[in-house]
């Protein structure tokens, strides 16, 4: 199926997907979860020629995968922890993502300011090692900056006691749109990829003439129609929610704390206007009061401040920031910025739950030292669970998952797909000029599909800065958007950039969705969500 296959008949796209799901079939692979990991597995498997269905209970990247710090990085902090293998793998994967989706992922210079005499040489040596480990995949040379150079790179940085700084390079990206590019690329490779399709049950495999087959119960969240999906192998890639599906499959075997695979960590991000720090470099404070780093990252015309690392055991799909987390980011940023950020400056607050792998000793402790590496478990016939990891290494994780499927005899082994060079839907031709990710949002985020967006009605009618009527129509016709939230949170990033602007654009967005035949064109829930993306005490 081509990338433009949905444009001609927008109203029938979802119906066609479920019609295909309804047909009697045994899929090679059923992937549960439409975040970075699940989408990576679906694309890799489809490119190897396997029949693949991916089922996402809400929207693609609707959980953790749209709430990252927007960085593609090897992990400077992991290097300090001595996790050389993770850093080396992530640096190689960083280069891959920048190559296959250059309109959505690009290099970004970071500056680490020094306020003590020892910080520049100490951190500089570590960052030089970071360069060395990247090798040919490096994005730029680490440089020692004078006080004046540091202030020039970071306008708005506090100059009192500043001695200089270190500049190094990492990557940044639009996480939700990269997930969408993965989904559509998997679909173009032959996979059936469906959002808002909830897996409500998973039964252990029963043998038929062709081998063991698992059966999954699936429900359309909008029509409540139910389906049975049969597959030789089921991949549990549901992030912080992996234990729920494992419990369904394993029953009593999975009860108790010993079976818990995930120790969730909450990361909070604040978004403010760029005039707080108007340059094109990101700021990195290497050590805050809780031992984490603090970032100030220019992104889509705004500035992201964060992030926290707070254990959290409830698994809400819309977790709220704790008051102490907001206070922490504001107080830490005030230590390095000339203009302290206040709650009134905040345009949006968003929270992500990281699916950190849970060691037995982590149940009551912090999460800063828990491994960011992924783990894969084959703990039920036909079920493979993957969790942990991070966005940067999604592709390597997908390869590892399929390797485990082969080792367990769940799938016949096939040669690797060249996902290192398979350009994602929307990727412009090699060498094409791209607009920086830190620029205000616009058509550049669609890459080679910008002309297809402009061909939709309403290309010249803006609903909000960076959001046209045509983008809403394209979201339904080509990008499987079904709700106002799908459009304003993930097809465009307006909710993450400015919650009040998103609320103002919601009614007209809903009207266009209804015209396009989307499954849910209501605004009530979305307006409630916009309120949650503002600090306590503020109103839409």
In short:
The chain has 540 residues and is an alpha+beta fold. It has helices spanning 13-22, 36-47, 76-80, 84-100, 119-134, 147-153, 175-188, 242-250, 323-334, 394-407, 450-454, 469-479, 484-491, 494-497, 499-515, 524-532, and strands at residues 26-32, 52-55, 71-72, 105-114, 143-145, 164-173, 192-194, 197-208, 211-220, 226-236, 262-273, 282-285, 294-299, 302-306, 310-311, 348-357, 374-380, 383-388, 462-464, 467-468.
Secondary structure blueprint with pairings:
Elements: H1 13-22, E1 26-32, H2 36-47, E2 52-55, E3 71-72, H3 76-80, H4 84-100, E4 105-114, H5 119-134, E5 143-145, H6 147-153, E6 164-173, H7 175-188, E7 192-194, E8 197-208, E9 211-220, E10 226-236, H8 242-250, E11 262-273, E12 282-285, E13 294-299, E14 302-306, E15 310-311, H9 323-334, E16 348-357, E17 374-380, E18 383-388, H10 394-407, H11 450-454, E19 462-464, E20 467-468, H12 469-479, H13 484-491, H14 494-497, H15 499-515, H16 524-532
């Amino acid at each position: 199926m081509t990338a433009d296959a949905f444009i001609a008949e927008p109203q029938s796209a979802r119906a066609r997907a479920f019609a295909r799901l309804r047909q009697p079939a045994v899929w090679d692979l059923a992937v549960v979860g439409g975040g970075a990991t699940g989408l990576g597995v679906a694309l890799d498997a489809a490119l190897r020629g396997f029949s693949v269905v991916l089922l996402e209970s809400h929207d693609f990247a609707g959980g953790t995968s749209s709430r990252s710090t927007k960085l593609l990085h090897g992990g400077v902090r992991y290097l300090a922890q001595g996790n050389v293998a993770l850093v080396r793998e992530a640096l190689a994967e960083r280069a891959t993502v920048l190559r296959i989706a250059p309109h959505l992922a690009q290099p970004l210079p970071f500056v680490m300011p020094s306020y003590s005499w020892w910080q520049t040489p100490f951190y500089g040596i570590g960052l030089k090692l970071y360069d060395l480990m990247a090798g040919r995949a490096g994005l730029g040379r680490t440089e020692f900056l004078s006080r004046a150079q540091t202030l020039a790179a970071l306008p708005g940085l506090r100059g009192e006691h500043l001695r200089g700084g270190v500049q190094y390079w990492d990557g940044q990206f639009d996480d939700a749109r990269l997930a969408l590019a993965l989904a559509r690329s998997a679909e173009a490779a032959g996979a059936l990829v469906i959002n808002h399709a909830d897996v409500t049950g998973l039964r252990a495999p029963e043998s038929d003439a062709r081998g063991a087959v698992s059966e999954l119960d699936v429900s359309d969240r909008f029509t409540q129609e139910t389906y049975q999906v049969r597959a030789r192998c089921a991949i549990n890639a549901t992030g912080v929610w992996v234990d729920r599906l494992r419990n369904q499959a394993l029953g009593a075997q999975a009860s108790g704390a010993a079976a818990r695979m995930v120790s969730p960590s909450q990361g909070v991000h604040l978004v403010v206007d760029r005039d707080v720090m108007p340059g094109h470099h990101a700021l990195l404070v290497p050590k805050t009061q809780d031992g984490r780093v603090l970032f100030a990252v220019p992104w889509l015309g705004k500035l992201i401040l964060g992030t926290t690392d707070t254990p959290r055991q409830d698994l809400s799909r819309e977790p709220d920031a704790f008051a102490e987390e907001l206070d922490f980011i504001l107080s830490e940023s005030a230590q390095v910025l000339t203009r302290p950020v206040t709650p009134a400056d905040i345009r949006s607050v968003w929270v992500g739950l990281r699916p950190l792998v849970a060691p037995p000793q982590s149940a009551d402790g912090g999460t800063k030292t828990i491994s960011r590496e992924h783990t894969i478990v084959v703990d039920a016939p036909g079920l493979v669970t993957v969790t942990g990891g991070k966005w940067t290494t999604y592709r390597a994780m997908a390869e590892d998952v399929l390797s485990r499927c082969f080792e367990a005899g769940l799938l016949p082994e096939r040669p690797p797909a060249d996902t290192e060079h398979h350009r994602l839907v929307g990727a412009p031709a090699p060498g094409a000029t791209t607009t920086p990710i830190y620029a205000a949002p616009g058509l550049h985020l669609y890459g080679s599909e910008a002309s297809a967006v402009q061909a939709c009605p309403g290309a010249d009618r803006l609903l909000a800065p960076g959001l046209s009527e045509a983008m809403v129509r394209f979201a339904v016709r080509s990008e499987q958007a079904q709700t106002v939230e799908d459009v304003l949170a993930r097809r465009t990033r307006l909710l993450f950039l400015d919650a009040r602007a998103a609320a103002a654009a919601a009614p007209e967005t809903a009207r266009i969705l209804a015209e396009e035949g989307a499954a849910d064109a209501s605004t009530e829930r979305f307006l409630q969500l916009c309120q949650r993306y503002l600090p306590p005490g503020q109103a839409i």
